[in-house]
Amino acid sequence: MYKKFLFTFIILFHSSLANALIEVDITRGNLDPLPIAVSPLYVDPKSENIKDIKTKSLGEEVSKIIEKNFKSTGLFNPLNKDAFVQKPDIAHLKPRFEDWRLIKAQALVTGKLNVKDGKLKVEFRLWDLTASKEMIALAFTTTPGNWRRVAHIISDKIYERLTGEEGYFDTRIIYVAESGPKNRRVKKLAIMDQDGANTKYLTLGNELVLTPRFNPANQMVTYLSYFRNLPRVYLLDIETGQQEVVGNFPGMTFAPRFSPDGKKIIMSFAKDGNSDIYTMDIETRVVEKITEHSSIDTSPSFSPDGKYICFNSDRSGLQQIYVMKSDGSDVKRITFGSGLYGTPVWSPRGDLIAFTKVRKGKFYIGVMRTDGSGERLLTENFYQEAPSWSPNGRVLIFYRETKSGPSGEGFSAKLWSIDITGYNERKIDTETDASDPSWSSLLSK
Amino acid sequence: MTKSLIYSVSFHLVIILLTVLTLPFMIRQPIELPPIVSVELIQISDTTNIPYAPKARKVIEKVKKEEKRVVSEQAPPAAKAKEKPDRIPMPEDNKEEKKIVKKKQNPEEIKPEIRQSSEFEKKEIIDTNQIAALIDKAKEEAALVEKNSNKITQSNQKNSFATGLTLTQEDALRAQIFGCWSVPLGLPYDGDLLVRIKLQLKQDGTITKSEILDHERMNRPGQKFYKILAESALRAVRLCQPLKVPPTGYEKWKELQLNFDPTEMLKG
Questions:
Q1: Which end of chain B has fewer CB atoms surrounding its CB within 10 Å, N or C?
Q2: Angle, nearest 10°, between helix axes A2-18 and B2-22?
Q3: Together in a domain, A401 and A424
Q4: Chain pair A-B, CB pairs under 8 angstroms
């Protein structure tokens, strides 16, 4: 009996020791950009030559665009191609992981393209160099003219695979292109790829255009234009170039913006001397009043689920940001800091609201949670406003004006982007001066 | 019959008691350790070689002159006369100081060691003594506690006895992995972001086997982010090879579990 007792005791005691595994909690990491090697895509020597496109250098060009995209995020560090040991043709088949690890790369992008029967076929692979395995492999077939978009789509797929959130490279930005002195400014609608390439002008500049905004559901744009000094809200289909007038609105009309499902336009306009928020159904053209207050309510923006609206109002005396239900009930003030708050825009992720803040003569672009807590000012300048979110809710684009002289000389407005950490601010190159940017959703999902 | 019943009951009681005392999940108290704050000790030399700005220099000289004047008027004990804040070796300063020393009433009372040490040095000496005393005291207290009580607290248990790593060793390992882990930024702030990786190590700290403990979660719908997080943690571990492990006690740490959780970091 004693033997049995001893045996049970040993078994139980041993099990307690065996479970004493050392545990170490890792709660912090680094935010250093991930070193990534983007090998030029291998071009099939049998590829046909296409008019206006140098097929031979296309692999190199595509890899350059991918690198530029990655660098602009601040999250990746594309390594210098001079250090690459392996040639693209071999690298694409089976990379020698040791060679790439030697140059401190943690991920590798390889690819291959060929042009056959007037079609461009591109395939790429993403390799995890520390684990020596493939992470993703995809192939696309498209018309050769779309080669830039292919580079952006590849960037998106890799970005998503490595960060866990959707990319934002295969997108476009619509903005107001400005030229001429400040007192006689010509304003045209312009559209470009998010990296500044492929700029196209959509209006001639005869009329003043303001606040273009993308429909989150498709490639439609709404904007405000003055016709015979009366504000009109327009709808523009970017694919077809077709324009239509949604309606003439009295007095001061501001910033029309789409609802998340793209079926309504929300805006503010002044009726009987008082500015309130209205929605209009695009199909039926029925206008509905949302706010009913004697103060000035402007800049409405829907939450991505369509249940709430944020807007700014001076009902407390100073311009502050408020949130209400989409039917106009349950209005709550969410900003209480010193200074004026304006142009609130709800993030497509739904977690943050971006805004412009004016305090002591300085303009700030900032973000806060949807209840107004956790305010973070990302950038400060003499004059900047109108933030617009990238489709994944990580980057904001806005415009910034430089100081001008007494007669408007030296004045210039440019587009800038900043990510929500506030560390990665970049100027976006545009052909002319630019203001009022709006970021499209992903062109291909 | 009664006898055998008593035997049976008492034997069962012994078994239950043993189970309660020895099974690890029952011992473990649900107290979380507070995060350990690493402190870097920097030694500061007594004097700086940074020159003062011309303006500041003038002000300092003026203040010093005034102080010295006061000292010479009142003629305090000589040792105290040396206690001036932030002495800077300036040519003019030294000359004046010499003169003042001559004026002092009892120069022979100044011990050479005291004369050479600035106020800063003195403080340091006092401080180190105090610290040494404090350490001694702490050791005594710790010994007393050990003698008087057999209870082991949660923190003691986790950090020394059970883990086999000292705090310093654990910190070194943690700091090494911090440097290797690129946290994916697109993760949801409110999701369960804990990734547990079990490692088997060689004596030199290289990894022979790595295993994600909840790997089935990687393929569950709606848990795409978990896969990306787990991969990043694995990358970090592989990148950090060989891990900074203690030179001794291999049996204790040959298997190691790392719990990666970026929640606090992402919430900022």
A1: N
A2: 20
A3: yes
A4: 129
Amino acid at B58: K
pTM score: 0.72
pLDDT of residue B117: 39
- Name the residue with tokens 């601010």: A425
Which has the closest alpha carbon to A47: A62, A61, A58? A58
Contact A128 B258 (CB under 8 A): no
The one-letter amino acid code at A395 reads V
> Where does B82-161 have alpha helices with state H?
91-103, 112-116, 119-148, 154-156
Nearest-neighbour CA in chain A from B109: distance (Å) = 58
Out of A31, A128, A163, name the one closest to residue B235 (CB): A128
Q: Tell me the chain A residues in contact with residue B236 when contact means C-beta distances shorter than 8 Å.
A: 26, 29
Q: A179 and A140, same structural domain?
A: no
Q: What is the CATH number of domain B156-267?
A: 3.30.1150
Q: What is the model's pLDDT at position A91? A: 77
| Residue B94 reports pLDDT greater than 70 | no
- Give the model confidence (pLDDT) of A223-277 as tens digits: 988 877 778 888 998 888 888 888 777 666 778 899 999 999 998 888 877 889 9
Number of compact structural domains in chain A: 2
Least confidently predicted of A173-187, A197-211, B34-48, B115-129: B115-129
